Amino acid sequence: MSPREANSPLTVPSLLALDRAHVWHPYGPMPGTATPYVVESAAGVRLRMAEPVGGHDELIDGMSSWWAALHGYNHPVLNEAVREQLGRMSHVMFGGLTHEPAVRLAAKLVEITPEPLQHVFLTDSGSVAVEVALKMCLQYWRSLGRPEKRRVLTWRGGYHGDTFHPMSVCDPEGGMHQLWEGVLPRQLFAGEPPTGFDAEVDPQYAAELADLVERHAGELAALIVEPIVQGAGGMRFHSPGYLRLLRELCDQHGVLLVFDEIATGFGRTGRLFAAEHANLSPDVLCLGKALTGGYLTMAATLCTGRVADGISQGEVPILAHGPTFMGNPLAAAVANASIDLLLGQDWQGEVKRLESGLLAGLAGAADAPGVKDVRVLGAIGVVQLDHQVDMAAATEAAARAGVWLRPFRDLVYTMPPYVTGDDDLARICAAVTAAAVAG
């Protein structure tokens, strides 16, 4: 392509040809085998397509762009926050310098997250937030003269990202990272937590978990889980009682507790943070996705003063990690605006409204052929099949219903933006059901 051609508007066929030749999409082969839909623009909860998809010029977004766009698209408040910050500076290195958007964001996160989280390390993405969290835990014990405490325990069914240490604590069999067996650190895995948000804690599972922590406490640096909702590992919900059990076990046996709230943070489960369902706090907390309202990539790892002080006492009294775009002013500014926008409205009422709509709208899917389970929590609706979903067929069925969904494994699910209206939510539910039947 000549420089002149590179700056000319692309026809959809030309764009897709270049995409297939050069663009490596997530979880896909190269060159690609599936043709992606081309988005021209987005506003509210609608994606404007470059050409009709399923007979529609627009698709309602049922995914919040992988759970990030809480406020929908092209929101005037968030747009203005980016424009205002762009007039000041788009980026400045965070090593040796600081700036108001990042400082305000760190203080805001400390204020709204459960105590005693006090310190904030800003990162580029959710996976990196988990990398930093595990590095904090490992370095904490090394600084305290306990370098043998270098393994991590989690439960099966989890997902924590695609970089190396996060991959090591994803489900080793049901996840996407079996390819790396023998390369990743060998971590410890308990069984999947029993399902059911309202279920009682299973005594046998609790005893098995307690035994595992007790037997390996001498080598465990940390225990990491996704609280309440296991996301990309299976969209499973569990009781807050298991979080209380984990907190007790970690305190009893000298293990740091890490919560990965990259998917659940900022109200998705009905509480601002999922840990609040159990009225407790971890030692380290990972946030991402919705942090910037889906505008720019940014994540955060928070820790207690105990963890920070422990690291500072070591032979190397620093956390040796520093992303180039750490604390990016544009991302920090829009994150501040997004959090203020969320907390300045009745977000709990909106999430409850979405929960009620999902319960009603997905109820009929339980009787559809091939459906194993239907479950809803907060602004999360899940239809689980008794077989692997035909992703192409399910996606096309949703598009014909005027909705964008991204099924995976045996799941057709939705995490709509909080601004989704009742009529659009009903269409999303109909599309989920259609996709489940087609898939």
From TrEMBL:
Its EC number is 2.6.1.62. Belongs to the class-III pyridoxal-phosphate-dependent aminotransferase family. BioA subfamily. It is found in: Cytoplasm. It holds the Pfam family Aminotran_3. Its cofactor is pyridoxal 5'-phosphate. Catalyzes the transfer of the alpha-amino group from S-adenosyl-L-methionine (SAM) to 7-keto-8-aminopelargonic acid (KAPA) to form 7,8-diaminopelargonic acid (DAPA). It is the only aminotransferase known to utilize SAM as an amino donor. Substrate binds at W66, Y159, K289, G322, R406. PANTHER family: ADENOSYLMETHIONINE-8-AMINO-7-OXONONANOATE AMINOTRANSFERASE. Pathway: Cofactor biosynthesis; biotin biosynthesis; 7,8-diaminononanoate from 8-amino-7-oxononanoate (SAM route): step 1/1. CDD domains: OAT_like. Pyridoxal 5'-phosphate binds at G126, S127, D260, P323, T324. Keywords: Aminotransferase, Biotin biosynthesis, Cytoplasm, Pyridoxal phosphate, S-adenosyl-L-methionine, Transferase. It comes from the Bacteria. The record marks Y27 as: Participates in the substrate recognition with KAPA and in a stacking interaction with the adenine ring of SAM. It is an enzyme of class 2 (transferase). InterPro entries: Aminotrans_3, Aminotrans_3_PPA_site, BioA, PyrdxlP-dep_Trfase, PyrdxlP-dep_Trfase_major, PyrdxlP-dep_Trfase_small. This is Adenosylmethionine-8-amino-7-oxononanoate aminotransferase. The modification N6-(pyridoxal phosphate)lysine is found at K289. PROSITE patterns: AA_TRANSFER_CLASS_3. It catalyses: (8S)-8-amino-7-oxononanoate + S-adenosyl-L-methionine = S-adenosyl-4-methylsulfanyl-2-oxobutanoate + (7R,8S)-7,8-diammoniononanoate.
